Amino acid sequence: MAQPVKVPAIIIRLPHSLREYADGKASVQVRGATAGAAIADLISQHPALRPRLKDAAGKLRSWVVFFLNDEDIRTKQGEDTPVGEGDTLAIVAVAEGG
Q1: Strand 9-13 vs strand 88-93: parallel, antiparallel, or unpaired?
Q2: Which member of 10, 16, 21, 74 has the greatest number of CB atoms within 10 A?
Q3: What is the pTM of this model?
């Protein structure tokens, strides 16, 4: 009989500008085997974050950067980047303009 697959628990750190959409929390514990699954769990816990993190097509917004243990997931496998138990995914909202 196969062992059940354990889905890693990670912490997502939220910038101050997004905390009001997550009940004022600075960090949220989520589960997921990938960065995308972890972000989906965050959104399921705090649906008000969805339009701030993803566009209407479900793509991550360009001005929101996700760092997995200090590495930008865009330089790895994007939302498919694997995560492990105890990892930290930090959200950074980048200001745009010129």
Answers
A1: parallel
A2: 10
A3: 0.90
